[in-house]
């Protein structure tokens, strides 16, 4: 069996975003139970020069949405980066998953050779579809999703590896 571009993208994004939403739900419950202002978590960072939780979730959402759209030969819908609560971040994930579910395998499969131009460090960079997915989009998506998880874990949210990777099919 051959792995398709669709299989390597959309279902992976949906699974990890669903799990990330679960981690955010645990963070919201933790904050409520301990009477912690959740904006402390939304603005938390692992290190002063790193982006806060909100931006990590926004970027994970952007990479998932943008990659699926570009592999399908379309421009992704734009979302404002204005989430200030865990609930708003979870809603962004929901919107992203809803968008991903509109993408069909027939739109994405066969995009291995599609030229995709994206800015990398401020300069336009040309990718083939497969290189864009495997060498740029997926690593960036996982980096931001993992960093969001790590920020919350670092702040005492009781989550573990299975919360991040989810159940194995």
Report a brief summary of the structure.
By secondary structure, this protein is mostly helical. Helix content is 58%, strand content 7%.
Shape: globular
Summed up, the domain count is 1
Distinct helical segment count: 7
The number of distinct β-strands equals 2
Quickly give the structural class.
mainly alpha
Q: Radius of gyration over alpha carbons?
A: 16 Å
Taking the sheet with the most strands, its summary is: 2 strands, antiparallel
Sequence stretches where pLDDT stays below 50 over 5 or more residues:
none
Relevant CATH superfamily:
dinb family like domain
| Amount of helix | 55-70%
Blueprint (SSEs and pairs):
Elements: H1 10-33, H2 38-42, H3 53-71, H4 86-100, H5 105-108, E1 115-120, E2 123-128, H6 129-154, H7 161-165
Antiparallel strand pairs: 1-2
Helix pairs in contact: 1-3, 1-4, 1-6, 3-4, 3-6
Describe it:
There is one protein chain. The chain has helices at 10-33, 38-42, 53-71, 86-100, 105-108, 129-154, 161-165, and strands at 115-120, 123-128. With 169 residues, it is mostly helical. A two-stranded antiparallel sheet has the order 1-2. A hairpin with a 2-residue loop joins strand 1 (115-120) and strand 2. Helix 1 runs antiparallel to helix 4 (86-100), helix 1 packs parallel to helix 6 (129-154) and helix 3 (53-71) runs parallel beside helix 4. The chain is globular, with a radius of gyration of 16 Å.
